[in-house]
Amino acid sequence: MRHKDCIFCQIVHKEANAFYIHQDDLVTAFMDIHPINPGHVLVIPNVHTPDLAGLEAACGARIFTVGQRIAAALRGSELRADGVNFLLADGAAAGQEVFHLHLHVLARYEGDGFGFRRSGQIQREKQDLEGIAGMLRSVLE
Ligand code: AMP
Ligand code: ZN
Question: How far apart are the CA of 127 and the centre of ligand 1, in A?
């Protein structure tokens, strides 16, 4: 249910300070403590869940629904966001630093300079799309 020493479990159980946006039976949403832009919210499962593989489908659906409502609030409130990103890092290689899964709901503003960057050339044309699609289909089926 919860993990000893997990800061996000402590936030769910109101044992650590946070600027709360929303809480229900499945998820909690609060302000990211190091915001990239004005209006940077995290939506997390109430149950300690390190990664996507362990996320209950109903909880995933709620995370998305709450994220969608927060996105509308970022645009519709006085923040007047020009756009919104959903970002979810699953695994250290994807940039995950806190291993209690979380969806970043990030307000974006024209010209804010935020973006994914990759060093080196991306060789899109050399990727075997057919082969990769086949591998994925065989696991999904
Ligand atoms: P990630 O790289 O996706 O794991 O991002 C972790 C995010 O959690 C970062 O944006 C941190 O600023 C944020 N964070 C870490 N500790 C706290 C905290 N106590 N309260 C709010 N946000 C936090
Ligand atoms: Zn946790």
Answer: 34
Query: How many Å apart are CA 98 and CA 12, to the nearest integer?
Result: 14
Rg, C-alpha atoms of the chain: 17
| Token pair listed for 61 | 């659906």
Burial of 87 (0-12, 13-18, 19+ CB in 10 A): middle
- Average pLDDT on 116-126 reads 78
Q: Residue 94, Cβ neighbours under 10 Å: how many?
A: 11
Question: Is 117's pLDDT higher than 90?
Answer: no
Rounded Cα–Cα distance for residues 10 and 98 (Å) = 13
* Averaged pLDDT, 52-75: 98
CB 12 within 8 A of CB 46: yes
Distance (angstroms) between ligand 2 centre and the Cα of 13 equals: 10
Alpha-carbon span 8 to 28, nearest angstrom? 9
pTM of the predicted model as reported, rounded to 2 decimal places: 0.95
